[in-house]
Specification:
The longest helix has 11 residues. A four-stranded mixed β-sheet has the order 9-8-7-10, with helices on one face. The chain starts with 9 loop residues before the first helix and ends in a 6-residue tail after the last strand. By secondary structure, it is an alpha+beta fold. The chain is 12% helix and 13% strand.
Length: 338
């Protein structure tokens, strides 16, 4: 599995696949308030929530084309983590297994599929992609994403930055890292349908920026009013859960699903759908690789740029590259052991 996709403009290519998870310029945003609202973040349990199977209207048709058509979809019952996998939980896995993540390893230059002299030296060092807001308005994703050596789940802001906060979602993980954790924990990555069913909690997905979610208030990417209480990633449990008792199903960090990505839904695939095959996958932002589908938006989604703070939102994500705004949670086919 390739860590990055091929391009002769290597730096731009990497930044493009990162930016793809929060694309779409739109001017329908409202002016944000000027004062932040303090947030209480009580400790919440790790105990998975059992959801009975059922049917729901999957997708949305009035925001981005890749989210439709809406189809009545049925999923079987499952258990699901109440919050995103945290740094504390991932640290327990690493302590028990000695696992080393993709971002902590040197990059194989052959994965770029370009001559070695075209690859910037720092992009062969262990690292990951970090959001770095500019001081000026910009529609150029290269102004706010940076591949930074020394970044990984333990040092999410760089080797000289702060350590990972135990109760924040773990980020900077590649697909292989998530799968390794899932196998150790006895769970699996949810399908897109399972994830959206859990996130919808009996309500239709609608294009309204939620108050009880960590998203961007203000003019992205250079002004964040922080009226939701956080400028960046928030600890789990800071916002009210949905009707299923699940926290941060929208906002905070994107969440990876097991489905390969292709724009739009197959209207005939309505019972426990698992998305397109690897060969049928297609990501217009990353055409050289079979991307995985990510859901729910992140703290970077704003009304003027990325209206993806919704259960139906979906984008492709390079499975080999971690970023500072993508995490995951697990589901289980039987009641997990404590």
């Amino acid at each position: 599995m390739s860590r990055f996709f091929a391009s002769t403009a290597v730096t731009a290519a990497i930044l493009l696949t990162v930016a793809a998870g929060c694309s779409g310029d739109d001017s329908r945003g409202e002016a944000a308030q000027v004062s932040a609202t303090p947030r209480s973040c009580p400790a919440i349990a790790d105990t998975p929530v059992q959801l009975a199977g059922g049917s729901f209207a999957m997708g949305e048709e009035d925001v981005y084309a890749e989210e439709g058509p809406v189809r009545q979809t049925t999923v079987a019952g499952f258990w699901i983590d109440p919050h995103e996998v945290t740094n504390r939980q991932f640290a327990e896995f690493v302590a028990a297994t000695g696992y080393v993540t993709v971002a902590e390893k040197p990059v194989d230059p052959t994965q770029f599929q370009v001559p070695a002299d075209q690859i910037p030296a720092h992009m062969l060092e262990p690292g990951s992609a970090v959001f770095t807001p500019p001081d000026f308005p910009s529609n150029n994703y290269a102004d706010w994403w940076e591949y930074m050596p020394g970044v990984n789940w333990k040092k999410p802001y760089g080797p000289d930055g702060a350590d990972a906060v135990p109760n924040e979602p773990v980020v900077h993980l590649a697909w292989d890292d998530m799968i390794a954790y899932a196998k150790w924990r006895g769970g699996r990555i949810p399908t897109e349908a399972e994830w959206e069913y859990a996130a919808s909690a009996g309500k239709r997905s609608t294009n309204v920026q939620p108050k009880e979610a960590n998203s961007w208030q203000g003019a992205f990417p250079n002004h964040n009013a922080e009226t939701d209480g956080f400028k960046g990633v928030a600890p789990v449990g800071c916002y009210k859960p949905n009707a299923n008792g699940l926290y941060d199903m929208v906002g905070n960090v994107w969440e990876v699903t097991s489905d390969y990505f292709r724009p739009g839904h197959d209207p005939e695939d309505k019972v426990n759908p698992k998305g397109p095959s690897e060969n049928a996958a297609y990501d217009p932002y990353n055409p050289g690789m079979a991307s995985r589908t990510v859901k729910g938006g992140s703290y970077l989604c704003a009304p003027n740029y990325c209206q993806r703070y919704r259960p139906a939102s979906r984008q492709g994500r390079d499975p080999g590259l971690g970023t500072s705004n993508v995490g995951f949670r697990l589901v289980y086919d039987s009641e997990p052991k404590a």
